[in-house]
Structures are given as C-alpha cells and as structure tokens.
Amino acid sequence: MAETEYTARGVRIGRWLRSLTRAGQVHIKDGRLELLTSYGTQIDSAPVEEVRAARPWFGRGDRAVASVNGRQYVLTLTGEQGWQEESGEKAAGRFLEAVRAARGRPDFG
C-alpha cells in the first residue's frame, strides 16, 4: 500500500439530500480516509482499501461519491486548498486519484 497524504478543506459533505457540513475536511493519511466537520469532529473513517469513490453519474463535475463503511457520502469539492485554488472539477479529480493511489491501484482514467 502506498502512503499517500491528501487533504481537502471547504468540502461540503452530505448524505443524499441532507448536508452534514458545508466546510468539512477530507484527509487521507496512513492508509485511512477521514471525513471531518468544520470543527474537526469525525463524521466517518475507514481504511482506504474499504472505501469506494467515483464521480456521480449525473450532477456537476465538482462532486464525488464516496462509500465509507457502507454509507454513501456526496462530497462537493470547492478546490480550496489553503492559499491555492483550483476548479472544483480538478479538486474532485485529485481526490479520486488520491484514493486510487492510496489503495495502490493505477489510474486508468
């Protein structure tokens, strides 16, 4: 397993139509994916090998769907990375690449 570190801030994390946080954080560190609220409280966490992540079939390009511990979360990535900014679509792509890399699987897309 590759040790990939990834952090995204300002992430809207929701479950279906319910918003859990509008400024959450996503961390991939030491082989675990963590979803945190804006206050740093853990929403969910799982080993990255058990996480499924993909782009949704419909909707905007700045979204990703992550299945963590059997629960599906919709992540809207704004591209806010501290002082750096990028489009939400690129941020969602970076998240998906980070999950694939942490699982040790090559990126085919």
N-to-C SSE string, H for helix and E for strand: EEEEEEEEEH
Strand content: over 45%
CATH superfamily: Pleckstrin-homology domain (PH domain)/Phosphotyrosine-binding domain (PTB)
Estimate the global geometry from the Cα principal axes: globular
The tally of domains stands at 1
CATH architecture: Roll
What Rg do the Cα atoms give? 13 Å
Instruction: Write out the strand line-up for the largest beta sheet, numbering strands in chain order.
Output: 4-3-2-1-7-6-5
Give the N-to-C terminal Cα separation.
20 Å
Mean pLDDT: 88
Just give the CATH class.
Answer: Mainly Beta
- The quaternary organization reads as single chain
Structure description:
The chain has one domain (6-103): Pleckstrin-homology domain (PH domain)/Phosphotyrosine-binding domain (PTB) (PH-domain like), CATH 2.30.29.30. The chain is built from one helix and nine strands; from the N terminus they run βββββββββα. With 109 residues, it is mainly beta. It starts with 5 loop residues before the first strand and ends in a 6-residue tail after the last helix. A hairpin with an 8-residue loop joins strand 5 and strand 6 (63-68). It has one helix at 88-103; strands spanning 6-15, 18-29, 32-36, 42-47, 52-54, 63-68, 71-76, 80-81, 84-85. The model has no long low-confidence stretch (mean pLDDT 88). The strands form two sheets. The protein has a seven-stranded antiparallel β-sheet with strand order 4-3-2-1-7-6-5, with helices on one face. The longest helix has 16 residues, at 88-103. The protein is globular and about 30 Å long.
